[in-house]
Amino acid sequence: MIPEALSSEDYLTSAAFGLLKYVDSRGFWESVFRRAVCVGPTGERIPGRFRFTEYGRAEALDISFWQRYDDAIPDLTVCFNGHDHPLVRVLIEVKLNAEKGDAGDPDLDQLVRYAKLAARLSTTGAPTFLIFLTPGDPVPDIRETLDLLIKEPNAAARIFGLQWGDLHAACLEACHGEATKTERQILSDVATYLQKRNLDYFSGFHRVAFQEFSPRSLLSLSGEPLFKRIRLPEITGIKRIVEHANE
């Protein structure tokens, strides 16, 4: 991968969601949004509140990249559509290394802009929510944004946070669910890509398999006893080991 692509949010967004847009599996998207967290009235973290299935059974999925809404251009617009109308819309703002804007300035905070857009879209069409997708914990940024949206009704119920590790975990989970063979391949590829980018959750250190050696092989080098060529201190225990190994 070229160095410029490693730090590009747009490349990451298009690489991952350019494939996921072909996954219609209800189970996968339920798994993704089930992992979203929101912020409660006293700033507490609340998991699992977002259930897009409450708005009806989606029959089609539509994902748009960088769709313009006047002066706002979220990275992704995800629409879950019914038979002849959209059921629910999700705006996703993606971050990799960049910040969401200047802290404390409502005019420069991207989440403030998109939260207001979600509220406006909800009054003229399908219920619309905002998801902030980041490598690390999105909750502190969401808390900061909500402090700037005190006068906006239901703002806290409209903004959710996800980590890239959540997306990776949902891909792995859905590989064993109802997804088709093609969808499972896509989910596996995206999970592998996110892991290669170190955007999965840390799952512990891997055990390294060491080759077993016999005492004699450890004490030998090129067919000759190793300790014949190394001057060792006259320590009784070591001397007995060397003598035994050279027998």
Separate helix tally: 9
Biggest beta sheet summary: 5 strands, mixed
The low-confidence parts are none
Distance between the termini: 56 Å
Gyration radius over CA: 27 Å
SS elements, strand count: 9
Q: State which percent range the strand residues make up.
A: 15-25%
User: Kindly state the mean pLDDT as a whole number?
Assistant: 82
Shape: globular
The level of helicity is: 25-40%
Walk across the major sheet and give the strand order: 3-4-5-6-7
Structural class: alpha/beta
How is the topology of this model organized?
Elements: H1 3-6, H2 9-20, H3 26-34, E1 37-39, E2 45-47, E3 60-65, E4 76-81, E5 86-94, H4 110-124, E6 128-134, H5 139-147, E7 159-163, H6 164-174, H7 181-196, H8 215-218, E8 220-221, E9 224-225, H9 236-245
Parallel strand pairs: 5-6, 6-7
Antiparallel strand pairs: 1-2, 3-4, 4-5, 8-9
